[in-house]
Design brief:
mainly beta, four-stranded antiparallel beta sheet
Length: 345
Amino acid sequence: MTTFYIAIDMALAVIRQHGAGWDVDLRLEGHTPQCVAVDPEHHEQLYCGTFDHGLWMSTDADASWNHVDEGIAHEKVMAVAVSAVDQESGSGVVYAGTEPSAIFRSEDHGRSWQELSALRQLPSAPTWSFPPRPRTSHIRWITPDPLLPGRVFAAIEAGALVRSRDRGQTWEDRRPDGPFDTHTLLMHRLVPNRLYSAAGDGFIHPGNGFVQSDDGGDTWQRPAIGLDYHYLWSVAADPADPNTLVISAAPGPQQAHNPRSAESALYRRVGTSQWQQVREGLPPSRGLLASVLAVNEAEPGIFYAANNKGLFRSADAGFSWEAPPIPWSAGTALGRAHALVVVPE
């Protein structure tokens, strides 16, 4: 059985595949989920951050959910991640990011949290600003290194991609050539020190929203050939081949997130070849909000995408896609897909 957790506008959609059959349940209804994470070593331990009611945790694979935010100072939890290599009390260390921009760490399964306050002392902090709410900003993404204990990256929307080498006790500020507006940051177990950033930089400043580092974030490159859209939202890599990538992109933030002007696409790249738009099995670009992408470590060559049209699967490394026959309840409004996590059996 494979389980999919999709943070949609007003609920956490939990989709389970049983052979050829599919079941759908809606959890945390009315709480505007923003992010989802699963402990890599304990798939029954789940975390879901919401825009209006803090962080929630399940210790029984979604059978029940509890509010866990003792020590988290803000209700808007926009990012959550669990380390695969930093362990305490038998589970991964958890990081939660909020609006306004702050990061909190838990070493006891989410029961208590410590703010990593050095983040707010970075020189770039006064410049961070989220354009729709310009007086504030938030932590959009947190990526613990899957191989190197203690190293963690955090993306502030908008203003910086920052790095810590000591579990967030201290932070290094944005590199001059680094991404400014990262939406998704990916690392891969098979290529230590490589980072893929899907960013809005191509819309905010001249240049491309896909940004790559091969040295742990010290220097960055922006391979853009083949991209027609430069506002990037999500990126995923083949579990068996870190050089096979799929990204979601739009002309700008309104087309990515506003149903009235929705327009987006998926692109695919292998190695250093140019980006190619993929269309087979996907809805037309017009009317399509930016997809969130995910893979399952147990399924080489398979990609998943979630958007306002549903859930889509590619079984050929992103070339073609299909929509599984998911029995959505009548009247279910998917809206934006904010996050997608795939958990294998």
